[in-house]
Design a protein that fits this description.
Elements: E1 11-14, E2 17-20, E3 26-28, H1 38-49, H2 62-94, H3 96-105, H4 111-136, E4 137-141, E5 156-160, E6 174-178, E7 186-193, E8 198-202, E9 205-209, E10 215-217, E11 233-237, E12 244-247, E13 251-253, E14 259-262, H5 264-269, E15 270-273, E16 276-279, E17 283-287, E18 305-306, E19 310-319, E20 323-324
Antiparallel strand pairs: 1-2, 2-3, 4-5, 5-19, 6-7, 6-19, 7-17, 8-9, 8-11, 9-10, 12-13, 12-16, 13-14, 15-16, 17-18, 19-20
Helix pairs in contact: 2-3
């Protein structure tokens, strides 16, 4: 006999029922005896059984049974894992040290991002400060009293590097500059003599003769009034840019014949063209407000401040008190 459903020829005999061993299909074993009439055989079956055969419970296919068992096993494993995690969390809550140890083992998320966000404002501030210091403002502490009473010893000052980008320095400007005799040192003085002028100091009083020959007394409202100004020096001539300078081997002379300094003047302030020397840039004569003790253009070896060595115009002092300069 062959199963009509799957073609299997193997059956399990369950009383009057035949069950396919492969797919579980059920067939009725009618048990017909060819030697006996069909009517007698049917009557015999009804007599022996007395009633219709009970319904047979057909087992499900093997594939479905295996799949169901796997699903049950996975469900049980998940329940066991969840129960283990719950117990672990409860144990950590009961033991703060264990919880802290677990937190330490957890990798910190976005640690690099946090460090970057923390450092970025600091880096930007440092860059801005460097730019301001190099190109916009100059900061200094005045170590001496040569500018008393305008600037006292240990006052902190700010100079603007932008003041002379489009304008030339003017008389009475307070400037910060590289000291001509040692450019590693910064000085602060007031401009009194301009290019082409002559400066004379008589008994502490400064007199200017401008390039047109007009002579006048320099303003002295800023001079230290606690002491009687004293000292006589000069005259000092300030060569103009482009003016030819000659030398006798020991000293240098301007076109008007006035002595402008030793031969160091040539290498400091001049450029050579065809064996002759010409003033390279604008020069300025500076004196301190505390005129009796100030070491300035009157006493320097290189008496003039070249325009390129001016770091900026002093615009205010901010410590120990704030004061703005005109």
């Amino acid at each position: 006999m062959i199963c009509k459903k799957c073609g299997c020829d193997t059956f399990i005999n369950d009383g009057d029922m035949l069950i396919c061993a492969k797919c579980g299909a059920v067939s009725i074993d009618i048990g017909i005896n060819l030697d006996e009439s069909v009517t007698n055989q049917l009557n015999k079956i009804e007599t022996e059984e007395g009633s219709a055969p009970e319904e047979i419970q057909v087992p499900p296919p093997i594939d479905e049974v295996i799949a169901e068992q796997q699903a049950e096993a996975e469900s049980e494993a998940k329940e066991a894992e969840a129960e283990t995690e719950t117990k672990s969390d409860d144990a950590q809550e009961a033991d703060p040290e264990a919880k802290e140890e677990k937190d330490k083992k957890k990798p910190t998320k976005n640690k690099k991002k946090e460090i970057f966000e923390f450092c970025l404002p600091i880096v930007i501030a440092a860059i801005l400060a460097a730019i301001i210091k190099m190109f916009i403002l100059a900061n200094a502490v005045v170590p001496t009293g040569s500018m008393i009473p305008t600037i006292n010893e240990q006052d902190r000052i700010i100079a603007s590097r932008l003041s002379y980008i489009s304008n030339d320095p003017e008389r009475y400007d307070i400037i910060m500059f590289n000291y001509p005799d040692n450019e590693d040192t910064k000085f602060v003085k007031r401009i009194l003599g301009l290019p082409g002028e002559v400066v004379n100091v008589v008994d502490g009083k400064v007199y200017i003769t401008d390039s047109n020959g007009k002579r006048f007394a320099a303003e002295d409202s800023f001079v230290n009034s606690n002491e009687e100004p004293r000292g006589t020096s000069g005259p000092f001539y300030i060569p103009e840019q482009g003016e030819e300078i000659t030398t006798d081997g020991s000293y240098c002379y301007a076109e008007n014949g006035m002595n402008v300094g030793s031969t160091s003047f040539l290498s400091k302030y001049c450029e050579e063209k065809n064996g002759k020397y010409y003033v390279e840039e604008n020069l300025y004569f500076c004196i301190g407000d505390n005129i009796n003790i100030s070491m300035d253009s009157r006493s320097w070896t290189n008496k003039y401040v070249a325009e390129s060595k001016i770091l900026g115009k002093v615009i205010f002092k901010y410590y120990p008190k704030f004061e703005k300069f005109e």
